[in-house]
Fold this protein.
Amino acid sequence: MTDTAREEILARINEALGRRGGGEYVSSNPRSTTSAPGVAGPEATAADAGYHHEGTHTGEDLVELLIDRLVDYKANVHRASGDPAGTIAELISDHSSIVVPRGLESAWPAGFSGEVNVDAPGEELSVDELDAQGAVVTASAVAIAQTGTIVLDGSAECGRRAITLVPDHHVCVVRVRDIVDIVPEGIARLDANAALTFISGPSATSDIELSRVEGVHGPRTLDVVILSE
Amino acid sequence: MTFLGMPLLRSKHAHSDLPGGQGNIVETEAFPEVSHEHLSNQQLRNNIGHATSTIRSKRAEVVSELDDWEKLRNAGEATKNEVMANLPEYLAQFEEAFTATGGIIHWARDADEANAIVTELIEDNAPVLETGRREVIKVKSMATQEIGLNEHLETQGIDAFETDLAELIVQLGEDKPSHILVPAIHRNRDEIRDIFMKTMPDAGQLTNEPAVLAEAARKHLRHKFLTTKVAISGANFGIAETGTLGVVESEGNGRMCLTLPETLITVMGIEKLLPRFADLEVFLQLLPRSSTGERMNPYTSFWTGRTEGDGPQNVHLVLLDNGRTRALADEHGRTALNCIRCSACMNVCPVYERTGGHAYGSTYPGPIGAILSPLLTGVEDEANGTLPYASSLCGACYDVCPVKINIPEILVHLRAEDVEANHSPVSTQLDAALTGASWMMGDGKRMTAVEKGLPLAHKATRGKQIDALPGIAGAWTSSRDIPALPEKSFRQQWADEEAQRSGTGAQTGDEEGQR
Ligand code: SF4
């Protein structure tokens, strides 16, 4: 059924575009090309219309911009240099157990006196177990200052998506070297094949008379620890 | 003279034989009639007015932060035009990449076919519960609303739970969405409390505080998120180059649905593709700022087929035509398919602000709905024949559209099509009036010329209210008075009001600045 549908829809598109014949479209090696065969490459299209690809903020200005935007989105921001263990321990001290991804620096949650559960491939915590955790502590892949956005990429130190979703409190470490200024710089650093989660502040809704309420289904508290080397 | 029941004039249009879409994109009552009902609903008007003006000013503020906004819009427009011109290639490329990572693609010619595919997938993957029914959770999606999926599933013994707070309010209130971004905006907090207390068995006593109501929704859905086996979503973007799908949201209900269930079924229109992953650098700037007026929405998720050990391991995508190829065949209208559903156009539309979304009788309300619905269905069977008239052609929608869809121009084009297809060649008063209006409104200079005559006409009628008109306009004046002719044109007044609201002084939209 669906095979016929596929051919018919492609034929309809060809007819709609006024192309004769149409036929089968097979591309090869899509992952290494930037556009489909027969389609002009990105340089040749009008897609790049001269908008900014690089930001202007650097150094402390860049960090300040990120902090400003994170606070605007109701995230709590903390700074640490070298070893964030003390800052992290303070943030999670009220909980009795937390979850961390397998690849997280083991020193980071070391100051915590409660139970530390490690979520690892083959030894994943069940959803109910995740639901019982007070907090999750992760690293991050990229942070975009202009929009106050932190990106998790499913790597060993960011963890699989469920662990930063189910617990109600997320403590996320952002390394200063991973901060970029604007969205294009952030996208350029990411791998499309990873499962990506962009986070800008904690979960929020404005569905009731447009008044903003933080925390509906995702974590209600987002603590960001900005870590300089 | 007709040919096979079709008006002769249709043969002028090269591709009109492509099948139109079905489902919730057909107005069941004519716009003028329904809008009349809604005009008298004061609460709806107040709520919509408050919402649109709030979002409008937030949008203006965050857009003004970017000095390359116009360049981003140009890039957005060019990218979507590139997609439409090469759609078969990009679809094939997307299919190959998505399939290579373990995703499964299904193609659906129309709403019925898409509903049948989704039903079958659910029957294969969601268990029958003690109630004898199956359950699925859903992320807010225009595509599934368009095909009437929830209603179809219900007849198949499947309950589909909306998890977006606004969609939940609409669903529990047995109501219809009135805005694509904030679907329950026509409800106030007291009504929402009453709906929750009536329909959530364990809600208990609730106050009308938004935080309390959001918490009730959280509790209500939590168990479902953690236990339901199958989820259904739409997608904001599909990346041809990599086979990646993306969903943009706020509450985390999207992340719940996209991450926790075993099976994920996504329904996406064939027009939603972007060529390259890098194109997200443009669209992730255009969409949130145009939509909610935020620099970035709280959560955005991307997945490419199946990710080993992370999220659903059974991943399906239904690619939907349902009239899109028909719209694509319309050379003057095809850019409507570039729409990224940000809802900016409805927030600036004076007609939408006064009627609300229900009046459009379609999943797609506001200015974009007025062109998209008729393009998807075709106007010749009068299905959506009145929608292209649901506009003042003031042009505000074009100015805010992040992908620069020229909505007013398409409206005029569709009006002409409707007149050709549905009204007899021997002109009725309406036909004559509409043809005249199309001619006048189709060109900014003519429009300005006519507007310049307004102050004169105002003097001629001595500013008196006009309460009866002969002929076709009588139907209109029998239910309301036409106000006195204004001293200033609508477009000029609107520009003045906007300027005052944003405190930028009385800069009018017209270069001539007629005062
Ligand atoms: S037509 Fe443009 S402004 Fe309207 S919803 Fe679509 S993208 Fe947004």
Residues 23-35, 40-46 of chain A have pLDDT under 50 and may be disordered. Chain A touches chain B through 88 residues (CB under 8 Å). The first strand of chain A starts at residue 76 and ends at 81.
